[in-house]
Amino acid sequence: MQLRNTLLLLSIITYTCTNGLSVDISPIPATAIAGDNLIVTSVITKTETESWKAFVFYVFDSGNTQACGGAPYTAPAACSDIFGCSYGFSFSCNYTHFSLLLNNVTILFKGFSIYAEVTIAGSPTVKSVTTTIIVKIPLQGVSLTPNASITKKESETQVFRCFARSLPIASLSWYLSGSILPTQSPPVITTDTVTSTYTYTAKKGDNGKRLTCTAVYESTSFTKDALLYVLYRPIVTISPNNSPFRVLENTTNMQITCIVTDANPAVTSFTWKKDGSTINGTANYTIPKVHRSHAGSYTCSAANSVGNSEPSTAMQLDVLCSYTNEICKDMWPNCQQTLLVENKMSGICSNTDFSHHCQKSCGVCSGM
Fold first, then answer.
1. Which of 157-161, 217-221, 292-296, 358-362 has the lowest mean pLDDT?
2. Which residues form the signal peptide (predicted)?
C-alpha cells in the first residue's frame, strides 16, 4: 500500500502546570489506516522567563512503557532517540515542537498509548494527556464459500462461510432473496477478521433463489451471493380429475393421463396402478375397449433422478352396463331406448339378477 502521512489536526487537550508551562499532544486519538504513516506531535507552551530541561515521548502497551525520543534543552534543541525505542518511531524536534513518526502502521500498534513529559527547573514534571493509537483497515470486500451456484437435492444441506477483513470489525448478515435470515451461531472474530457460517437446508421453493452474505463497515457495504438450484421429486395428478369417473361399457380408446404439475429435473418414467397392481408405464393409459372388469381404483406416479413422486389421488373408474330395450321395457315399461345401469357388484349383470345387482343410472333412459 502506498504510504501517506496521516496527521489529524484534532482538538488539542492540554495539561497545564501551575507556573504557566504546559505540554500538549495531538492528534487525540491518533488514528491511522494500516500501511500509512502516523505522526504524533507535542508542543511546549511557556513564557519567556520559563525554561525546561528535557522532553520525552513515552509509548506504552499492556503495562510495558518505553521512552521513545527525547531532547535535552539547548538552543536549538538537540533531537535524538537517546533511549533506543524498540517500537520503530522516528523522533524530531525544533526547540518547543516535537514529533514522533511511525512508518507503515500495522495492527500491532492497535491500542498503544503515547504521552509527552517535560522536566522544568524548580517544578514537578509536566505531562500531557494520553493519546491512543487507533488502527483502521477499510473493508475491501467480502468472500463467500462456495459461491457462484450450487445444486442440492431437497432436504440436503450445504454449509456456507462468509469472511471479511477490516478494523473496526465489519458486521455480517445472511439473506435469502432479500429476506434476512436468523443468525444460527455467533461469528468468529480475530484481531481484524470476522467469519460467519450458515447451514442451508434445500427446499423446493428456494429453487432459483440467491443466498447472500452482506458485510457492513461504517458507511460501506459489500455483498456476495450464491445461486441455489434445488432438485426435487415430481408432483402428479390424474386427468380427468373427477372421481368417480363413469364410462359406458364398450367405450373405445378411453384415455386417462398422468399430469406432472412440478418436477426438477424432468420426469424419466411413469407408473400406473389399478387396485394397487402395476398395469402401465407411460404418461397416458389407454383402454382400447372398456369392459366391466376395468372398473376399479386408478393411481399414477412419476420418477426423476431425485426419486419417485407420491401416488396421485385415486380416481375411481365406474363402468356403466347397457341392456336391451326388451329388458328395459320389462322393468320400466315407459323406457323406449336402451337403459344404462351401473354395475354395483363384481361379476356380470344378467337378466335374472338385474334388479338385485344393478340400478337405473340417474333414473332415466339413455340412448346408446
1. 358-362
2. 1-18
- Does 326 have pLDDT greater than 90? no
Distance CA 109, CA 4 (A): 17
Mean pLDDT, residues 9-24 taken together: 51
pLDDT band per the 50, 70, 90 thresholds, residue 243: confident
Maximum separation of any 2 CA atoms in the chain, in Å? 144
Which residue, 197, 231, 265, sits at the end of a domain? 231
The domain of 331 spans: 321-360
Amino acid at 200: Y
Residues 10 and 130 in one domain: yes
Q: How many residues does the chain have?
A: 368
| Same domain as 125, residue 69 | yes
Domain count, the chain: 4
Kind plus residue range of the DSSP H or E element containing 325 = helix 325-331
Judge whether 344 and 357 are in contact, CB under 8 Å. Answer: yes
Reply yes or no on whether the pLDDT at 340 is more than 60.
no
- Stretch 81-90: mean pLDDT: 72
**26 and 83: one domain?**
yes
Q: Give the separation between CA 304 and CA 221, rounded to whole angstroms.
A: 42
Residue 367 lies in a domain: no
**Cis-peptide, bond into residue 72, ω within 30° of zero:** no
Cell of 290: 372398456
